[in-house]
Amino acid sequence: QVQLVESGGGLVQPGGSLRLSCAASGSFFSINAMGWYRQAPGKQRELVARITSDGSTNYADSVKGRFTISMDNAKNTVFLQMNSLKPEDTAVYYCNGSFKRSRFGSDIGSWGQGTQVTVSS
User: Fold this and answer.
1) 1: pLDDT confidence band, cut at 50, 70 and 90?
2) What SS3 string covers the chain?
């Protein structure tokens, strides 16, 4: 019902910046919350950043002060601005969202396909 399409990943040098985008499409009434997760080889998937419908945000300690999550409500798109990138940030980044089906409906979750971020000299 809800599709998430990610873009913006790539190869960047340490200290560089990238901006990830995630656009939601399909049938839903409203967005409850959206976030970004990442998974490095051999590691567990972890929460990077999250934003709720009221604008509340939270970040992993490892990215606090370097990454910023934001949302364009008109375009149903969430962004992750990543600055001062480190090799430890290398991972596949996944967009996640929670959506309300209709005015009186239940919630539905969705995941993006993932986009590779590589930080290397």
Assistant:
1) confident
2) CEEEEEECCEEECCCCCEEEEEEEEECCCEEEEEEEEEECCCCCCEEEEEEECCCCEEECCCCCCCEEEEEEHHHCEEEEEECCCCHHHCEEEEEEEEEECCCCCCEEEEECCCEEEEECC
